[in-house]
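explain this chain.
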Amino acid sequence: MPPEAESAGFKVLAMDDVCYGPVDIAALVQWAKDERVVADSWILCLTDQRWLPAAHLPQLREVFGNGADPAEETPGDAKSMVRPGSLRRMRVLSDLTDEQLTRFAEIGEVVRFPAFTPVMKVGATGDSMFLVLDGQVRLRIMVKDHEILIAIHDIGGVFGQISLFDGGPRITDAITDAPTVLFRVTAANFRRLCQKRPDIGSVVLHALGRTLAMSIRSDDKHLAEMVAMHANT
């Protein structure tokens, strides 16, 4: 990138689809160190109006390492540590401190899937939950070859968490609707975390309980509406 690019400034397309900036290179580097900019964040260089992943900018290579394209990893089989800053977007982790997020990041792995790829299948043994770092996942059940939509999870969402409690079979399919990056946490790793760091485990369990309670309330309301509708026919 030409030297004048540093003085021209940069814009950052954030995970919320808002474009921030312009900022100079010093601010951009600091954002990367603070994990407000991650390796696959899209950066616009205002000098040549060219978009690049943050890891591909020469000025940020020291922060992100060699700048390898995460999309080159094997989908569904790639294992790597997530940067703790990426977990700040997860709603069930929003009450954790920076130190606690760093510890939580150590118990899971990043897995990547192309669009329209199964992540979970009905009846399969459940042994992990998933947090959506990027992309979108659709939960469904199939009834006589017809798809019944259960839920859609995008960035910050969580699914599969029931398996942390009972290890039973999956009750829905989970299909990616776009290229998707997930953070997978196994039940065994989560139990060990709860034993070693109950301060983290209690916060996450309480947040997961809230999400399950919201889901149950929604299901109960829907069931009541169906019963009422049937009673009036």
Observations:
- The longest strand covers residues 146-153.
- The CA atoms of residues 75 and 113 lie 5 Å apart.
- The chain has a mean pLDDT of 81.
